[in-house]
Amino acid sequence: MTNQLYLGDCLEILDTFKENSVDTCITDPPYGLGFMGKEWDTFDKSQFGIAGNEGENDLKVKKNFKVLPRYNNGAGLYDFALQWATEVYRVLKPGGLLLAFGGTRTYHRLVCGIEDAGFEIRDTIAWVYGSGFPKSYNLGKGIDKFVKTGNASLNGTGDSSNGALGYTKLQYEQGYRPDDYSNRHQSTGEITTEEGMLWDGWGTALKPAMELIVVAMKPLDGTYVENALKWGVAGLWIDGGRVGTEEHIVHGKEAGKFQPNGGETIKDYHEVKGRFPANFIHDGSDEVLDLFPQTGKSGVAVRHNSGGNTFGGDNPKPPMEDMGYRDSGSAARFFYCAKASKSERNAGLEEIEPRLGGSLEGGNDKRNGKNKPQLSMRQNHHPTVKPIALMRYLARLTKTPTGGVVLDPFMGSGTTGCACALEGRDFIGIEKEPDYYEIAEKRIAYWSAQPKLL
């Protein structure tokens, strides 16, 4: 297993690679959200408003908010996705898969760029987690402050207009109130104006609990069979990605006679490989598990009583074993669970000086008295670190019979490389930020020295 790590711009470095030389691309590119004010995640100021504009009705952003220099013309996330996906398309082998993470607000730009680069969009995997922290603007508080500072009248701009209260001045003077106003008209202490109390409970965003992974494929050279034989890559390793069960399960009516700890081995026993992998992955958090019901034993298709004769012949049909898993519990067991270890993020980084970092999405970050996420001191200060278990699963699901080379043009803190080290796959990583590159280099070296837990 070999690692090739590059410090620099992925577009420039990928241009030096040979075409049709990489088996898989697994990456977590910028989402174009201006995440935490990071320049590497900002492509177009127009998505936030006009920076520094002093017009009364214009959206404003920080005057010093920067964008990546080569995208300062406002080309945006789509053009960026098209550029890097075009380079990845060139270096991937025919039939090679590209798995790229995207944010729910900008995923469509990512996918369109990848598709326009020549890829076939095969599927979308949902990565669902419970650590997201809502960043919703409280309209009630905002309106309350707006009215108190004298920026708005009680009832908008005139007798016949709808203002902050949502109904006219004349209606207000006549005692009109919405049907549900009586349930929300009491002050909370922080909100005292009638306009603010009316809008108390309204916000602007949902709690983030999901990221999407586009599954794209470079078109095949012929059929799947022909492509596999010629290029050594085709499809997904379904058996490698199966969702295993915690105990041996026996098919057939004699299943009760099987004793796992040494006993009678019955004739029709065979080990179940696990459930077929789905396009849904979760983190096993309480928030996610609560979404799923507790189920009794999963259904069993009884097939041993086939009866009758073979088609067009006199030979009786052979008996067939039952199909099913005979297990019970949370329905979350039907999907792969990628739990994050609290220690994995900083493993191997003992020599790195801790810095203030982490993610405002929540996760393992500390909370202050108002239950807001707080950044903490840590060696791995990258804000969007994915769990190694998640990236291992993706590396395993896309593995070829001989392993295959994985490319990550946005290596970040190197989690994809750590996963490849544990899954026995060769890895090529590119990162343009020197601080993140150093973290990735040390993390990948650490996990490459760990026993392979295959």
> What percent of residues adopt helix (DSSP H or I)?
10-25%
Q: How many strand segments?
A: 17
- Low-confidence parts, pLDDT < 50 over ≥5 residues? 45-74, 154-162, 246-261, 264-270, 300-304, 359-371
Counting helices, strands and paired strands, the structural category is alpha/beta
What is the terminal-to-terminal distance? 14 Å
- Looking at the structure, what is the overall shape? globular
Q: Taking strands numbered 1, 2, ... along the chain, how are they ordered across the largest sheet?
A: 1-17-16-2-3-5-4-6-11
* Portion in strands: 15-25%
Run of helices and strands: EHEHEHEHHHEHHEHEEEEEEEEEHEHEH
Explain this structure.
The protein has 454 residues and is an alpha/beta fold. Among the domains are: 3-134 and 207-239 and 388-448, Rossmann fold; 139-198, no CATH class. 22% of the residues lie in helices and 16% in strands. It has twelve helices and 17 strands. The strands form five sheets. It has a nine-stranded mixed sheet, with helices on both faces. The protein has a two-stranded antiparallel sheet with strand order 7-10. The protein has a two-stranded antiparallel ribbon with strand order 8-9. Strand 2, helix 2 (76-91) and strand 3 form a beta-alpha-beta unit. Helix 10 (388-397) packs across helix 11 (415-423) and helix 11 (415-423) packs parallel to helix 12 (434-448). Mean pLDDT is 74; it is low at 45-74, 154-162, 246-261, 264-270, 300-304 and 359-371.
